[in-house]
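Batch manifest, entry 17 of 40.
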Amino acid sequence: MTAQQVTRPLPTQARRPGRQRSWPVPAALVALSFIPVAAGALRLVQLAGGPALMPADHRFADFPLPLVVHIVGATTYALVGVLQFVPRFRRRHPGWHRRAGRVLTLPGCSSPRPRYG
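Output type: structure tokens
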């Protein structure tokens, strides 16, 4: 074959068969976590003495520490936990994946047990 006869594969042909994109699920998880993370950030600003950007809630006035632990833990879990669902990241960084999974158990357990009644 001469250099003129070489054809380049189209972008759709360049991918290996059976290989799928791995970004839709993590992107959807980040998008779903945007509203709770933003609301938590606004609540933290309010608890730190900033302007009242959200309506005050009497449940948090006396004991703000559990709320702060919950917001920070949930934000950490939502944003770092997304990387646990990326297969390419797991393959390239298995040590980080294991350590992050162990570290994420603490924020995952930081949510208080629900009370009924």
